[in-house]
Amino acid sequence: MERIKIGIIGAGRIGKLHAENLKQLPQVEIKTISDIFADNIRDWAAQNGIANVTADYQDIMRDPEIAAVFICSPTDTHITMIEEAAKAGKHIFCEKPISFALNKTVQALELVEKSGVKFQTGFNRRFDHNMSRIQELVREGKIGDTHILKITSRDPAPPHKEYIPASGGMFIDMTIHDFDIARFMVGSDVEEVFVQGAVLVDPVFAECGDIDTAIISLKFKNGALGVIDNSRQAHFYDQRVEVFGSKGCLTIQNDYPSSAELYTADGVYRDKPLYFFLERYNEAYVKEVKAFIDAIVHDTPVPVSANDGYQAELIAHAAKLSLQEKRPVKVEEVLTQWHISV
């Protein structure tokens, strides 16, 4: 079987992770990886069987043998690369968020749709064994009609000061995963958002016009209600979910390195939860790239669509407006704000 040739743009932490996962798939060949600091990754690329390393991502776009691109570069570069890849007829896997500007996201995705290429948004949590199982059980009606969704999502430590201004803010950078999982779990788009936010971890967030702690209330179009609580510093990775319905309740607890517990006269001890997203969602990252490649091989729909990426951004912008104006915000208000027609 002829292998699908892949180009990866961006060899930071996530780009390298995708490359290392893709090389496990026998139907894939990573032909080229691009990074502005190309010389720094040549040894790593050679160790991972990637023959071509370039500082110019256009080398990937111009290569007719490359059938699909992984866009793992900074967010402010995504739109240009998406448009170029679509025009070149290359399938696209793009890390979240698609962009910081909702109207540009819409324009790029309209071009993708017209081009006919496949586009998958990088929401890896959908492929987590716990998250996907909850969604399956909700879809099968095991808890009846969904009434309340609760998501706890807290990072072990805040990002570096240099990262914060370019991150897009908590909602676009961090909570966007929770917005996507909320839609995934409930099976409905969000209608209204209300946010209470604060700076309780580090004043540097306020200096950057951001927050580090939030409680977010969601109202879904199907009538369900949701609550997300976020913190940039929990000192451990806290990822829990509860879905309550008319016939029962589903919960997800944190994943641990082991389930062993030590009982002594001084107390009961166990491992801390898996420390960060690379450990907690390692298997999910493998599954998401495999799902994208399978969609190309079998010409089937991707499991996380361009619309999924857009909807999560839409909620994130509504959350930002709610925080700024200290009121509930209808998601449709954001469309007006960004001059987007339905």
Features:
single chain; 342 residues; alpha/beta; Rossmann fold; Dihydrodipicolinate Reductase, domain 2; 7-stranded mixed sheet; Inositol 2-dehydrogenase
Structure write-up:
Belongs to the Gfo/Idh/MocA family. Residues 133-250 form the GFO/IDH/MocA-like oxidoreductase domain. GO terms for molecular function: nucleotide binding; oxidoreductase activity. The chain is of the alpha/beta class and 342 residues long. The protein folds into two domains: 4-117, 3-Layer(aba) Sandwich (Rossmann fold); 126-280 and 310-338, 2-Layer Sandwich (Dihydrodipicolinate Reductase, domain 2), CATH 3.30.360. It is 37% helix and 25% strand. It has twelve helices and 15 strands. It has helices at residues 13-22, 42-47, 58-62, 78-87, 102-115, 129-139, 170-186, 204-207, 277-280, 282-298, 306-325, 331-337; strands at residues 4-9, 28-34, 52-54, 68-71, 91-95, 119-122, 146-154, 190-198, 213-220, 225-231, 238-245, 249-252, 261-264, 267-270, 329-330. It has a seven-stranded mixed β-sheet with strand order 12-11-7-10-9-8-15. Strands 3-2-1-4-5-6 form a six-stranded parallel β-sheet, with helices on both faces. The chain has a two-stranded antiparallel ribbon with strand order 13-14. Strand 4 (68-71), helix 4 (78-87) and strand 5 form a beta-alpha-beta unit. The model has no long low-confidence stretch (mean pLDDT 97).
